[in-house]
Automatic annotation (TrEMBL):
Pfam families: ABC_tran (PF00005). It comes from freshwater metagenome. This is Unannotated protein. The keyword Secreted does not apply. SUPFAM superfamilies: P-loop containing nucleoside triphosphate hydrolases. Residues 4-247 form the ABC transporter domain. Keywords: ATP-binding, Nucleotide-binding, Transport.
Amino acid sequence: MSALPTRPTTRCQLDADLGVHVGSLSVSAELHLEPGTITAIVGPNGAGKTSLLRALAGLIPLDIGRVVLGDLVFDDVGRGIHLPTEQRRIGMVFQGQRLFENLTVRENVAFGLRARRIPRTNARTVADNWLCRFGLDGLGSRLPNQLSGGQSQRVALARALATDPALLLLDEPLSALDAATRADMRSELRTHLANLSVPTILVTHDIIDARAIADEIIVLESGRITQQGRLSAIVDDPQSDYVRELLRGL
């Protein structure tokens, strides 16, 4: 099997201290996320949650700071380092991200592997394995328009995980699902993520998603982290009106 692009030598902590400008919004954040930890980022619309994920993924250039995963430097503005997105070994599911309509389910899941020059037979085997893990075995030859919403989201998650990412970024992965499917997917997603030994960041506007899936929560308001910690600690001492309103959903 062909070698995949550079990845950290071990499952490692994500360390980021960065600043980016997106339009009129300035986003500044310091993150230290342990391998195997699931961190939910919550915040009002326009707070910069998606922009932060895109900066970590290398899709938005940093204005200042650095992003390091273990011994691999993704970004270091001071040293002029910017690793392209395709070399970061990141699994991503962004809000509104669609499956490739002209590819089968199996081909969608294998897409990242084939892009990294993994032989077709090997990529197919890995894809089928992930489809089985998500309860989608037997659906590999279907096209995306033949899937339900829940099935499509499972395929998107399988595609993100199939490349053996060193970091997982999920932007509102459950937002398009109906209430019943969403409840099922919370438990299923938590189970899959708990078996990974990589840092995972989950952006969500739903505190129930955060409670069910994440180990820790970061609150982002107007581009700044205003509170961070276990949900129990945040419940005991909410630091802003937004957080107090958010917690009413529990």
